[in-house]
Amino acid sequence: MKHKNLLRHVSMVALMSAAGFSMAQTTFAAEEEEEELLLEEIVVTATKRAALIKDVPFSINAQTQQDIRRSGAKTLEDLSRNVAGLMIQNLGPGQSQVAIRGVSAGQIVRDQPGVKEQVGVYLDESVISLSLFTPDLDLFDLNRVETLRGPQGTLFGSGSIGGTIRYITNQPALDQFEGAVEGEINTIDGGGTGGHLKGMLNIPVVEEKAAIRAVGYYTEYGGFIDALREGGSIDEDVNSGYRAGGRIAIKFQPSETVSITPRLIYQKVDTDGFNRQEVFNLFANPFTTTRPPVTFEERQQFLLLDEGFEDETLIADAVIEVNFEGVDLTSVTSYTDRDILVSRDASALTGSVSVDLGFPDEAVLLPSNLLDTTQVEQFTQELRLSSSGDGPFQWIVGGFYSDTDRFYNQFLPTPGYDAFIDATFGPGTAEAAGMGVAPPDSPFFSLLPYSLEQVAIFGEATYDVTERLHLTVGGRYYDYNETRTVTQVGLFGNGVVDQMDETSSNGFTPRFLASYDVNDTVTVNAQVSKGFRLGGVNDPLNTALCNPIDLEIFGGFQSYDDETLWNYEAGVKVNTNNVSVNAAVFYTDISNLQVTLDAGSCSSRISFNVPEAHTQGVEFEVKAQPAEGLDLSLAMSYVEAEFDSTVIDSTGAVLGGVRKGNRLPSVPEFSMGATATYTFPLEIVGNGVEGYVSATFQHRGSVFTQPSDQEPGAGDFVSGLPFGGASGNDVTSLDLELDGYETLNLSAGILKDNWEVTIYVNNVTDENANLSFDRERGGRARLGFRTNQPRTFGLMARTTF
Is 0.85 surpassed by the pTM of this model? Predict the structure, then answer.
């Protein structure tokens, strides 16, 4: 009854808001006679046809190019501050994970390549989401970023069970030569320096027939994490890096009814380390006596080896649009080629196993480099027809096909390790464990090639029952097949070679929407929709690393089923002369939620299904211009996300914190973001010159990284590893409920016609937030938190021509 009472309460709030704004309409109407429209009308393509955002019959947010500039956003995480219900889990550049409305399976990490995403991410018409590594795209020369809340499976497929995010770029302009250049330099308090240089050029090639639009950018990331080294030295700012890339699009319009737009996108992200601040490391902790004891300060970690991350992405796509009389034909063809490398210092991980095996200290201290490589080739084709007339009946039908080959490889080069294996277990043991597949001195080696194929047919139709009442019904049928081959060898592996696993599924997801125009200002809408997320097969456990208890608990998990949910929502949209409001209440009933869990000492992670869970809440967004030159925006959400089932493991205990009433991981209950910008004339500087000041405030409530983190005693870690004079029985006690935090960004600038100069301070209060919890081998090898960027000072200049 708890969730029904909450839903009833927030529904009343929404309806009262609608009524209030309806009564206030007469006041705004009077003002409209004297004022011009202040708030821009935003056109979106969330329904795969152009529509004003106020006419889209479900909850959607669109951050325009002006919004992006005003808030100083450089990443999707920055933008999320002003999008209600959008949660970004920062795992470093190019590795962040997205959740909408609390639909979250917990932290997915590098060695779970079979897990599917819960939020679909698109660049215009091309899908680019990948569960572990959705590209961290640059926001320069974007028209807008759309956030579609709730399942969007009907039009956008399986990866959109929680919602969809769409980066919408500016298209080549056929009738105008234009360009833009933007440069920035920044310095991080206590860290390094960074900055960027970006440019855009739009060139009409044949008047009204063809144009080219090219964008290029380079961003340098300043580091802010310091690494303690063996011997006591410190390397500063080890998580620095860069992002470089560009895109070029050519638009051909041979006639008024035909448009062809091929495009090429390239981006590379390269960082030297990760935003991890540690509190315990096998080699550096307060308990050692024969080694120097270490108590970490903020933003410090311990490394024997340098770390790094590389992500090289190439996307080629083409959109063809043909307009027949009353019908539009759209073809979207996309090819993606990505290479990802995660290079991590796994010395503590390998060393922890070496202690368990009774190896000497020389073996425990061997530098060990865990290399994860992911190669992805994906081809997608979508073909759809849609009505283009003005009648009361509008429709869209289409088909979608995708073919993905993904090759995942993980190995653990540890020079000199084979000698210690053979010395302990007998000559030839290391070679035998490698089974003729693993290279020498790699106690773990795995190969996981995937082949994924999907076919879908979708459609949606809208009928205007009256001038005010609009009804929409849609659905998608999908058929999916995944084949995977597993090789996992080495002393830490389980001796599997070329084991084939296959999973497949098919189904139908419907959607029903209704919207009613109360008047010219207020629209109410309702939605019932089903979303789905494809299941899969777990990777084999690293059985050689598991202690008997963990082997018994986690050894039985193999495949996991499709996750499905039903979403129920009601919303209100209010648009007046200078105020827009978007509010909604929602309830999602989730079946077979795919939860990700750390498999303790096994140094593995598993996914499994929780029979029932739910999320429910309210989201509220408002933009306003209460006075000339003053722009305000507010986004806030309250989400209750909980398990409705308890899962018991083979020992009879609650598995991983999946207990009825416990919170879903990575979901804050309350989040809020607000931006205020005041623009004013600066006649003292020159004619037509304006100045502005802007502030963005964000609050994020507390979260848990994994479900088990909220169980009693979850924050007490005992390594059980006697090393460096430490007994292994010492307790490291941590609060795994990651505290809520607030950040404040300030900026001020001068602009005139085609140029702008801005100074800014981000994270003014230098908040050191714990964004997620990082544990290595169940916390026996390493404990730490991923953290945000410290206070940063910057100067930016932009010009257009």
Answer: yes
